[in-house]
Description:
GO terms for molecular function: hydrolase activity. The protein has 381 residues and is α/β, with parallel strands linked by helices. Helix content is 38%, strand content 11%.
Amino acid sequence: MASKSSTLQNFTLLFLICIPFSSSIDFNYPAVFNFGDSNSDTGGLVAGVGDTLLPPNGQTYFKKPSGRFCDGRLIIDFLMDAMDLPYLNPYLDSIDAPSFKKGCDFAVAASTILPATANAVSPFSFGIQVAQFIRFKNRVLDLQPKGRKSDKYIPTVEVFQKGLYTFDIGQNDVAGAFYSKTYDQVIASIPTILAEFEAGIETLYDEGARNFWIHNTGPLGCLAQNIAKFGADPSKLDELGCVITHIQASKLFNLQLYALCKKLQGQYSDANVTHVDIFSIKSNLIANYSKYGFEQPIMACCGNGGPPLNYDSRITCGQTKVLNGTSVTVKACNDSTEYVNWDGIHYTEAANHFVASQILTGKYSDPPFADQMPFLLKLKF
Ligand SMILES: *[C@@H]1O[C@H](CO)[C@@H](O)[C@H](O)[C@H]1NC(C)=O
Ligand SMILES: *[C@@H]1O[C@H](CO)[C@@H](O)[C@H](O)[C@H]1NC(C)=O
Ligand SMILES: *[C@@H]1O[C@H](CO)[C@@H](O)[C@H](O)[C@H]1NC(C)=O
Ligand SMILES: *[C@@H]1O[C@H](CO)[C@@H](O)[C@H](O)[C@H]1NC(C)=O
């Protein structure tokens, strides 16, 4: 008995020692350039439009609002951890000479792939983000020969070819379209959205990018925001309580995005194009939440209105407003680790951690990378 338990303890110890080293082995990138929306915005919107995010955003990890629409870290933050790289600074953040040595985040909350409309929350659509990258790169090339002073803050030139280019965008094109279009019109617009995405990828390839990491979109019909607006009639909901049209649109967007990734894999024989199936990871989390230690798969942690959604489109997380003659302040739930959803639109840090850990199994990637992973890492998840 005694020897059995000490073997177990030794094994656990070995296990704990090995994980931090093994997780960074396969991701040996010198830098990350990220493009996207709020799913990977590390402060772009607040810097770019001078907006403020209020507490309790950030409360779990950064202990104050960090520009992320979350109580803590995002998927991209956990991926940076796995690569032993620092969290990405937003391109738009000009204060205090932020370091871009290990990469730069061009993602801005509310951004679309398609060019932004005049009244869009974020004017920084995908094409603009790509244009900003080109400006960023040109500025780096410009500063490079001068050396020294800027060395601390900017990447070296070879990083543009060796770096990882990550993408998580499309959610606002698909979910946003339902406010003004019929289901058929939303579906019909997908090829146009993806043509714009492809054009951006091609531009980056022409600029020297060779490692592409593309996330598909999540099960958008499971977000409280969409259920509140489009799911009042129970016949519009599936067995998980998610809006069927939005789930279907997410799936069709993803099928076409996957086809595009396969096409790019064939077309760019000197590049790595990795597709990551975020939809399956998030769907699994929502369907099997209790198995993964969560208690609420859909209800927002930080929202107004109480069960079943705790979501109120009139007021956002942390805001105080007079509603129906009463002053309301939107606070967080007691324990955000029990919730998949943070504010009705974005996931909690706990859920983002789960998604990132699933990504790192390699099982949701095309091409998969699990076979190259040290076996101890595989055991972890
Ligand atoms: C593609 O990825 C492999 C494995 O990570 C790496 O060895 C190779 O250099 C990458 N190709 C390019 C063009 O960067
Ligand atoms: C939930 O878990 C079951 C059992 O592991 C699995 O078969 C199913 O595919 C999961 N659901 C989703 C949506 O992934
Ligand atoms: C506010 O008042 C309107 C109209 O009386 C009512 O329909 C609505 O349910 C009220 N909302 C809340 C959150 O109390
Ligand atoms: C949150 O915690 C407070 C204090 O412990 C308790 O009174 C309240 O019922 C809790 N709320 C929920 C929703 O569990």
